[in-house]
Amino acid sequence: MHILVTNDDGVQAPGLLALAQELRTLGKVTVFAPDRNWSASGHVKTLDRPLRVREVCLADNSPAYSCDGAPSDCVALPLMGFVEEKIDVVVAGINPNANIGHDVTYSGTVTAAMEAVIGCIPGIAVSLDVPEYHSGPLDYNSAARVARKVTAKVMADNLPAGVLLNVNVPYLTEEQFKGYMVTRQGLRVYLDKLERRVDPRGRPYYWIGGESPTGILEEGTDFGALKAGYVSITPLQLDLTAREAMEVMKKWEWN
């Protein structure tokens, strides 16, 4: 098995290292990740400038590729031929915050997995629900083992075409997990606030600030599963068609 590992936090992020090390137990791992943090970048494809790739070493001295493009670019380039050996699956992460509900449209982690599906390769995004006020180093070990288990399952049983998995792991030890739950997207509640400020030259500038997002606690959702101590596995599809709305709109008078 040949696994492409990427992320949106940068090639030297500790979550990526933990993921790569754990997935090496399944097969060959190629790491191809951004050279900087692209969190909340969404689904980006760089078309207006050349992309630069260089070879680097991770903290364990294993080789990796670093690219000045977005997470989606870091999947597209290998699939388009930069990596000559066939890639069987793309795993993105481990993101140090949950990606649930509407987050999936912002998340570079999730959209990297989307890019894999566009390239007809299984894609898995893995995120860790770190408590808001956590301090000190993060423990990615449990999330990495979850990623290994999910990846092995995907390769053994296959995913339907056009589907990626969005995996969110509670910040617990494996012994504390309540289990694994297949979930639907929940409803994320954003508490953003526009901060208007003035620079030293008297010109206005703006920050998007506010409190950390929360969510609607519903059974069967990614947010609900995480809060209950379950690993949440949400199958997502790239077809965003609102089919119920189609049926309503077909009844509209268009002439």
Taking the sheet with the most strands, its summary is:
9 strands, mixed
When the domains are counted, the total is: 1
Range of helix content: 25-40%
What's the mean pLDDT score?
Answer: 95
Can you characterise this structure?
The protein has a nine-stranded mixed beta sheet with strand order 3-4-2-1-5-6-7-11-8, with helices on both faces. The chain has a two-stranded antiparallel ribbon with strand order 9-10. By secondary structure, the chain is α/β, with parallel strands linked by helices. The chain has a single domain (2-186, 216-249), classed as Survival protein SurE-like phosphatase/nucleotidase (Stationary-phase Survival Protein Sure Homolog, Chain: A, 3-Layer(aba) Sandwich), CATH 3.40.1210.10. The chain has helices spanning 14-23, 71-82, 103-106, 108-118, 141-157, 222-227, 243-249, and strands at 2-6, 28-34, 53-57, 63-67, 89-95, 123-129, 163-170, 179-182, 188-198, 204-215, 230-237. Helix 1 packs across helix 5 and helix 2 packs parallel to helix 4 (108-118). The chain starts with a strand and ends in a 6-residue tail after the last helix. 26% of the residues lie in helices and 31% in strands. The chain contains seven helices and eleven strands.
